[in-house]
Design brief:
This protein has 217 residues and is α+β, with helices and mostly antiparallel strands. It has helices at residues 3-9, 23-33, 52-65, 87-93, 96-104, 111-116, 136-154, 169-176, 209-212, and strands spanning 46-51, 68-69, 72-73, 123-130, 158-162, 182-191. It binds flavin mononucleotide (FMN).
């Protein structure tokens, strides 16, 4: 599989088979992702993996106290939510509904419940970053995320980076012994995609590359 093939094959997977991901495979993925670039080689990603009973307790807490509520995300996230989206960002987000109708049919109705239940994922990778670091470290965390997700594709695994995985930072912190100096930036669910759930067929749109990229010559 070429890198371009992996880029095209990756999409967010929202339904997983109840099959654990062997630790050795997760470690292969993390080893590959260690090559991610970072400012001054700071490697600011602090990685915690939730699985088994600990993940079960995080899921229970998210289902009871997390998720979008009137004031935003029920349990709150360590990182502040965006103040607002730009008009262009709103236009792009608005395409998701039609894509879902086209690709997922009836399975569309599962979007909310699967989000609330953390996609029944067998494992969640939590990416944390030191509170002392400024916003630049989030650039490195984002790059690391994509490294993890592409290395997962190469191994037949699905992933989804999701805010819905970090709505109970209090519980995640306790279950995974995450020290107070770290912010929980994002969670990436990982596992074997359920091939029978059409929610996984969602292929989201992108702006045409000729309008997305501008050259100055
Ligand atoms: C920071 C971040 C947060 C996200 N949060 C959620 C989420 O809470 N629920 C969800 O269903 N998808 C979430 N996603 C997945 C995006 O909806 C998805 O990446 C986007 O629509 C593009 O689709 P694709 O990943 O299938 O290419 C998130 C993605 C990112 C990068």
């Amino acid at each position: 599989m070429t890198v371009t093939e992996a880029l095209n094959k990756r999409s967010s997977i929202r339904a997983y088979l109840p099959k654990p991901v062997p630790k050795e495979i997760l470690m292969e993925i993390f080893e590959a992702a260690q090559r991610t670039p970072s400012w001054a080689n700071t490697q600011p990603w602090e990685v915690f993996v939730a699985a088994g009973a600990a993940l079960g307790r995080i899921k229970d807490a998210a289902a009871s106290g997390g998720g979008p509520g009137p004031g935003g995300y029920g349990g709150g996230t360590d990182l502040p939510m965006p103040a607002q989206w730009s008009e262009d960002a709103k236009r792009r987000t608005a395409t998701i509904g039609a894509s879902m109708q086209r690709d997922c049919g009836d399975a569309m109705g599962q979007f909310g419940p699967l989000n609330a239940g953390m996609y029944n994922a067998p494992a969640v990778i939590y990416l944390c970053v030191d509170k002392a670091h400024g916003q630049w470290s989030l650039y490195d965390i984002g790059a690391y995320s994509q490294s993890v997700m592409l290395a997962a594709v190469e191994r037949g695994l699905g992933t989804i980076p999701a805010i819905m995985l970090v709505t109970r930072p209090d519980v995640i912190r306790k279950e995974l012994n995450i020290p107070d100096n770290l912010n929980i930036a994002l969670g990436i669910a990982i596992g074997y995609p359920d091939p029978d759930n059409k929610i996984n067929n969602l292929h989201t749109e992108r702006d045409d590359v000729t309008t997305a990229v501008r050259f100055g010559e």
